[in-house]
Design brief:
Layout: H1 5-20, H2 37-42, H3 46-51, H4 53-66, H5 81-87, E1 92-95, E2 98-99, E3 106-107, H6 118-123, H7 125-137, H8 158-162, H9 168-201, E4 209-212, H10 214-223, H11 225-234, H12 236-261, E5 265-270, H13 280-300, E6 304-312, H14 317-320, E7 329-334, H15 337-344, E8 349-352, H16 356-361, H17 364-377, E9 384-385, H18 397-410
Parallel strand pairs: 1-2, 4-5, 5-6, 6-7, 7-8, 8-9
Antiparallel strand pairs: 1-3
Amino acid sequence: MNKSPEQLYEERLKRVNDAIQLKVPDRVPLIPIFQAFPFYHYGVTLEEAMNDYAKAAEAHDKLYADFDPDLAWDNVLLYPAKVMELLDLKWFRWPGHGVRANSMYQFLEGEYMKANEYEELISDPTNFIMSKWIPRSFGALEAFSNLSSMRDSLWLGWFSSFYPFSLPEVQKSLNTLMQASEELARWFGSIFEYRQKLKEKGFPAAWGAFAFAPFDMVADTLRGTVPALMDMRKHPEELLRAVEAMVPIAIESGINSAKTMGNPFVWIWLHKGVDDFMSDEQYKTFYWPSLRKLLMGLIDAGLTPMVYGEGSMNTRLEVLRDVPKGKVLYHFEHVDMFRAKEILGDVACISGNVPNSLLYFGTPQEVKDYCKKLIDVCGKDGGFMMDSGALIDEAKPENVKAMFEFTKEYGVYR
């Protein structure tokens, strides 16, 4: 008997939620994050996908006709090229704008906040972002450096805070921002439309919001990796206070987006807290306390943090235990998964670790053998979801198919 899309939707969502809550689902859930793979596999260039939202949707249609994940992604991971072009985004290169038409986009780090600007950020993060970070990040919005803090607008203060909007260069930037926002609205519209299509086909949407560890918010796009890591020694107090100032911003962003999207899954992409970048003591001082506050803020709001660990996090596993039971998913890329299961298995669901290199260079049998080891150990008694180590871009379709087919056949609990 064929199941209806409504039945499949509820079945898949229950499977995922059971795993997160450390219950034993009917089988191991499959939640790989497909980024460029559907476009590479179905003959749409990345440049086309970032400019033609209908073409991007068609590639995803074919993907879900051929594969059967328990959580499904839309086009949110390929950003709208027209918006970035209009705004002249400085810290990105994308297909047709700095890289070839079918190459993945690249992040360009820069020092968009100087070490002597910590106090300015801490005292008024909103004004710093508006009048310093935005004009430094977007060439078309450089005139925003003329804007003053809106918190000065009480009583007659608005005379001064409103005046900069009369400047021709500010008005030009505002007009460009309006054009970019209209295109951004079209992109978001395509995402909402596709999410509805996914639901009608029986697929729960994978995401409700994106968030970042407060330390990464400072280190990724404000200070940059090297300056931020140096600040742990040169400016530790200022860095800690800045990270703390990011906590409410991160929590509010996750809650507001998840409510808008009507989806509780908040994906938190971890970057700088890996084994290679800081010691255990530094991690416990600069990274984990604020990350835990973010996790707890989301959990208290009834949301599910999906913590996506990129890189090696073997020395962090004991620290990651300090969360409420059955409320968090920890995804791992390069981690001893058997040890992760041993340490975290009674506290949090874990996922990931199927090497992207194996999906690209290996054979279907090698993929099945790897998945079997993960299911045998990490899948024992639930609390595990099958996923690649990192977002899937280049991979052999037959290897991705092997991961799916084997998990559905072998990863059954009852």
